[in-house]
Amino acid sequence: MKVLGIETSCDETAAAVYDGERGLLSHCLYSQAQMHAEYGGVVPELASRDHVRKLLPLVERALCEAALEPEQIDAVAYTAGPGLAGALLVGASVARSLAFAWDCPVVGVHHLEGHLLAPLLDADAPDFPFLALLVSGGHTLIAQVRGLGDYEIIGTSLDDAAGEAFDKTAKLLGLPYPGGPALAQLARQGRAGRFRLPRPMLDRPGLDFSFSGLKTAVVVATRGVELDAQGRADVACEFQQAVVDTLLAKCVRAIAQTGLSTLVVAGGVGANRALRQALTTLGERRGVRVLYPRPEFCTDNAAMIAYAGYRRLIEGEQDGLQIRAAARWPLDTLRPPGKMCRAAV
Questions:
Q1: Any binding-site annotation on 110?
Q2: CATH 3.30.420.40 holds for 2-117+298-333
Q3: 115 labelled as ligand-binding?
Q4: Structure pTM?
Q5: What is the pLDDT of residue 338?
Q6: Does residue 145 sit in helix, strand or coil?
């Protein structure tokens, strides 16, 4: 089965083709980061309009790179949520229209399910069950992944996601948009020990996170301090280490609680070098297999949507004629294919 995947949940427009026999055939992505940089964040209406302009050319490019004609596509998968409502509707409308024109099935995919399954795109994919740390700009959670659609969230952020905290702190330090990667790069030049920030919620039991206070802690720690270039790097270094230490400690607790020996790290922050190094060291010390998607599959992409759609389609799931998009769609409302899994959409 050859599946065209479409992703338009936020500020990346993407299309990809996945073949159940040959694997990923093409993967095309256009980032709107430069357009939104002027505003210091994603402007939903501008994002939607740009998806309208860029999506069909990307679909054509994905088909061309896969050396396929439209009639050779067996199904279409698209991100149905969560995300920006207008952006989601662009992808959903195009996907539904293409499927109708090509007379093939279509299925809406949960964006976070795509992230959780992204490591399965590679040859050394983990077997179910495994533990997953999903850490991005909009979500931070730990889940037990027992199978397709069988997810139990055992820890989640009570406020800001880790990636959101990165972006907000980067803005405080005067770094360009997108702030998270810029802060991570600056942190490499920083010196440890000059500033000290808290490690949120490590003084209490459980697996939940809270990162909103870290930005305030940065403000307090730097109050009255003239920050030169080195000073900003030192703050960035300590902030990044505080986030990494917190994520690491919660993963240690989750491994002990579940007894699982495979940890998958997904989401945009999963590409952070300091986090990867810390978790890899953890795995080596505790005999835990730690896996990451390729860096290009950590951030939003259509390859993961095509693959997640393929997995549901081969189990017999598909949508009707309706166009579906849900800005909010809790991951734990999903169920395995064949069971009631769409109540929230």
A1: no
A2: yes
A3: yes
A4: 0.93
A5: 72
A6: strand
